[in-house]
Amino acid sequence: MSNAFQSSVRPKRRGWWRYSLWGVGLGVALGGVLTWTTTEGLQSFGASAKGARLERMKASPRYKDGVFANTAGDRVALNGPGWGVMKEMLFGTQQRTPPAPLPMARDVAAALAKPPETGLRVTWLGHSTLLVEIDGFRVLTDPIWGERASPSTIAGPKRFHPPPLPLEALPEVDAVLLSHDHYDHLDMPTIRALASRQVTFYAPLGVGAHLEAWGVPAERVVELDWWQEVSLGEGRLRMVATPAQHFSGRGLTDRNSTSWTSWTLLGPQHRVFFSGDTGLTDEFAEVGRRFGPFDVTMFEVGAFHPSWGSIHLGPHQALQAHEMVRGRVLLPIHWGTFNLALHAWDAPANELVAEAREKGVSLLTPILGQPVEPTRERAETAWWSSVQAAVAEDAP
């Protein structure tokens, strides 16, 4: 064979697809290792209900075909996301994080060491975490002291601010109330820290599986379906699991496998409503009829958008829900701590205040960590405006 002929023969090329498969396989392997190491061996995803717990879930009228549903119909799916929402998410110009540190109360632990003069005091600790002191009892809602609302320690929404009260400085509480298992409401590091305390956790059906997997003793886990209730102090404080319109899930395959709820607190002198996460539902009118009026309601106002208007209230619907449950004073929650939506970080508060003034609704808008007594104080302070003002003053 001549040299000219040999040079015209091209060497056999290996299939490019082999290298692509190797690349994909390597990427999957690295992603798996990273996920495993940043979620504590996947423990942050929680656990599935089994045995007697699962049987209690199956007994719920809202549990069908292995999942929970809203009584008003399955309206929890997002209307999208669609290109419009994706475009807004990627290219929106809203200031979704604060431009400067947020103001916070000082010496919160010292303030909490003194009992409330009126018997009712609420301290907003960020997002949906509140310390409610009602007629001699302390109740903590949806506690999150973690750095991220995420299963991962390195990815996911990060806090705008440190908690105004260190967890170790939190006074002893009589109950921890949980509304559902989303990461911005059920935080594994916080639950593990609280598990060492002799406190009982009250949760919607199925959520107890997560708690026990994270070290909470089974005897300190109580799960309720809607309209079920428990009492503390020989009946002096009633805690009722009341309806909410939302959904649940901590992974890709467990959507709506656990329940969600709002909470009603009924003391001998005062009444409090905590919404958890919810859209607007006619069932709030029934809550108001059975248990209202409420001295104070804590309704979610953040993370709102037309595409998920059936599962998050936003300011406008929060005012409607407040009226439906027959609330006297509204303290807005679920805003000012994490970037979870497409609006500006302070839009929920601005829109709420503007509409509340038109409707004559009394608001409580304390700075983070400031204890307020709703039956005596009207702490309607637009403190978020001072954040923007401070930035403007520092500008050259």
So, CATH architecture of the largest domain? Answer: 4-Layer Sandwich
Mean pLDDT score, rounded?
A: 90
Strand content: 15-25%
* Structure classification: alpha/beta
Q: Cα-atom Rg, whole angstroms? A: 24 Å
pLDDT below 50 for ≥5 consecutive residues: which ranges?
Answer: 1-9, 75-80
Gap from first CA to last CA: 80 Å
What portion of residues is helical? 25-40%
Provide the CATH top-level class of the largest domain: Alpha Beta
Beta strand count: 16
Description:
There is one protein chain. By secondary structure, this protein is α/β, with parallel strands linked by helices. It folds into two domains: 12-41; 108-394, Metallo-beta-lactamase, Chain A. It contains eleven helices and 16 strands. It has helices at 3-7, 16-38, 51-58, 82-91, 108-113, 188-195, 208-213, 283-291, 314-324, 347-359, 383-394, and strands at residues 63-64, 67-68, 120-124, 130-134, 137-141, 175-177, 200-204, 221-224, 229-232, 237-242, 262-266, 271-274, 296-300, 329-333, 362-363, 371-372. Strands 8-7-6-5-4-3-16 form a seven-stranded mixed beta sheet. The protein has a seven-stranded mixed beta sheet with strand order 9-10-11-12-13-14-15, covered by helices on one side. Strand 11 and strand 12 form a beta hairpin. Helix 9 (314-324) crosses helix 10 (347-359). The model is unreliable at 1-9 and 75-80 (pLDDT under 50).
